[in-house]
Every structure is written in C-alpha cells, then in structure tokens.
Amino acid sequence: MTNENLIHYIHSIADNSLILGQRLSELCGHGPTLETDIAMTNIALDLFGQTRSYFQYAAELSNEDLTEDDIAFLRKERDYKNVLLVEQPNTDFAYIIVRQYFFDVYHYLLLKQLENSKNVNLQNIAKKSLKEVAYHRRFSGDWLKRLGDGTEESHERVQKAINDLWVYTDELFHMNEDDKIVANAGFGVDNSSLKDEYYQIISDLIKQATLEVPEIQYFQKGGKKGIHTEHMGYILSEMQYMQLAYPNMKW
Amino acid sequence: MTQEADIATELLPILKSVSDPEIPVLSIVDLGVVRSAYLLENNKVKVEITPTYSGCPAMDVIGDDIKTALKEHGYEPEVKLILSEAWTTDWMTEEGKKALKDYGIAPPVDPTSDKDALLGNKKIIECPQCGSKNTQLVSQFGSTACKAMFKCEDCEETFDYFKCLI
To answer: Cβ separation of B165 and A131 shorter than 8 Å?
Structure first.
C-alpha cells in the first residue's frame, strides 16, 4: 500500500460526509419546521467536522503543500469519490429523511469497523464520529417511522422516496482499487462485508414503518469511480465558488 | 476507560479563566475539553484540547482564547487539537454542571436515562427554571451541536438540555 492509496481512500470516505453535509446545509433557513431545520444543519456541521479531521490527515500525508481547504474545494468533479446517494437533491422532506437514513446506517456500520483500523488516525476519527453518527441514525430512523406510519400523504411520499433512492444503495458496498488495497492492508474496511447486515437493518425498519421494501434489482453506480449524476456539477459550482473567485480566502 | 485531565497546577487558574464562547458561564476546564497542560523549558507551555463534537465551531476560538490568556501571564503557548480519547460528558465537572443549570441549561444526566429522555420515553430531565420533571422533548437537536431542546409543561418555558455523550 502506498501513501497515495491511503490518501485516495481517505478522500472517498470523507467525500461522502462532505457532499451530504453540503446538501443538508442547503436547508439552512429552508427546513420544513424550525426544529428540523436546526437538526439537519446540526447534522451537516457534524459531517463537516468529520470531513475536516479526515482532510487534515490526508493533507499531512501528502507530499504536496496542501491544506484541508485545497482538498475540499479545489478538486475537479472526477476526483470526488462520494457515492451517488449523497448527491441526490432535497426533493422533499421524505427524500431528505430517506437519503439520510440510508446513509446513516451504512455510515454507522462502516465506522464501527474502521474503529479497528490498524491506522491510529483513522481509528481515532472513527471513534469520535461514531458517537455522532449513532445520533444521526436515531434521528433519521425516528422520522422514517413517523412519516411511514403518519398520514396517507406522508406514507405515500416516503414510499416513493424509498423506491427512488433504493437504486443508489448497492453502490455503498462497491470498492474501487484503492479501497481494496487499503482494506487488505488492514487500514480500511471491506465494505462488502457490511452489506447483509445493512439490508437487514433497513428492511426491518421500513417494515416497522408500515412501508414496503422495494424489490428492485437494478442499481446505479459510478460515484466511487468519479462518475457522478448531473447534480454533482451544481453542488460543486456552489460549494467551490468562494475559493475559485477569491483564491486562498479565509474566514 | 477514560483518562483524567492532566493539568499543571500553576496553569490551572489561567485555563479556568477561559470560558466556552457559546456557554460563557462554563470554563473550558469544567467542560472537560482541556486534556493536558504542561510547562516546558523557557516558559513554553503545551496544551492539548479535544472537541466536544467534531464540527464544534467554538474550538478555533477556544484555542485562540487559551493562547491569549497564557501569553498575558508571560507564557509561550502551543495548543494542539487531539481526537483521542473522544470527549465524553463524564469529563464535565460537578462545578460545570451546576454552572450550566444556573445559566438555564439542563446538565446531562446518566447515559441510560439520557436515551430514554431523548426518545421521549421517560420524564426525567429537570426544568432548569422551575425544577419540574414534567418536561417534553421538542427536538433532538438544539441551538448548538451539544444540546437538545426541551419544553417544561409546568412553567411553559423552553430550555436547552446538554446531551449526554459517552
């Protein structure tokens, strides 16, 4: 395993948090109620905090003179290795909650394994983040149940969100070359080992929420290779605007 | 197992004078974010701090405030942010919990009760205004990452609860 492999692996984990955080922060001032608005932006803040820890470490590992901001803001679309799920838009509150829950369960299982990484930095970030992600998962899971078992309309909308977003779940368990090398070295996680438990957990909750588990067998993929949906360009153009317009600006 | 903070006696009063910018009544020592502080040669001081939550925006300010306070006392400080071990509410001192309550924020209760409270199963979070336990969870997330929002059914005030993190 080279340093380069490890850096790419760290990017791919952190990019999920970064892009989902960016999506959630779009809700600042636009959440359906004040409480959910604050909740979604709090989750965004946790995800950005985790991203910073990962990128600070990746910057340290790099031979170039990089900062965490360079990694977050100055890469090109193909260099972001986040899964397609996290870049999907805030269509309505049902989509936001389903996207969150689908990601939170995966994120939780991943960090639980990453806690055992042979790399002490990744171990520490995982331990810290796990506490936060357990809380996110509780929040999104509660809302999923509430929407499923709520009114006729909330039930219908959340079922639609589940059906539409289901095609993005399989990609969570894909591994690119870097992922495989880093996992084999005992630093990273073998994502495919999380799959059965993941589908068990989300299927149980979907049923508990009086909803149906989709039987779709066709899945979308690409993000892990840097090939994104059309939404990604829009996210990046907004996220990167300040650093491109005012290079090296700081708060 | 959680470690005790390791702070040199002569530095303790200075660090105690620095407060959390988001909860001004709470000293960073009582909050448990200062994990170690020691004197090196030539008035150099090394301080290690750990964030309550990864994204806590107060950490940069806390780091700067520590440096300012120590410089005023003639020290040359270096502040390092560490992640291990991860912060837990167990590190908050009794003095800190009292300061929170006096300020109108309900201090964290033990982890098992905390889970019940945050799931709305049990009424155990005491209203910091009137002391009633007839309180209701409004939102799992509050004005900052470390807090949840509650409402007191008796005095009808809303209040922040400092979440338990273990």
So the answer is: yes
